[in-house]
Amino acid sequence: MKKYLGKIQIWWQTIIFSALVFAPSLVKAVLVNGLTDKEAARCAAFKKQFQGMYIDLPDQYCSINALVLWLIETGLILAGTVAVLFIMLGGFWYLTSAGNEESAEKGQKTLTNAIIGLVVIILAATIVRIVANTVTMK
Question: Is the whole-model pTM more than 0.70?
Fold first, then answer.
């Protein structure tokens, strides 16, 4: 039992770390009455293009740049969620291998690849944020 406690601890630490990484990305700040008259008119004109398409855009998506950035960020969040699920799956396979070398190796490979994928996703999200902030600077 003692040999599994260390593995369980690592597994839970990974889950908690992943939750802390992705939780801020899931919370979006909503722009409330922070638009100037010119920005509000531009926003209304942009939203008017989507009338009748069953798309109700919130105020923070008043340009095609913001919309594309939202789509990219949503894709990265989904990819990160899948990576975390694979980390959990690999950890489960590794913990339940019960001495079976093939199953333990399968779990280790899944964990390794999922962690590499998660790091790539975090770097991609960082690069997208840096580029978006650089491009949209006023």
Answer: no
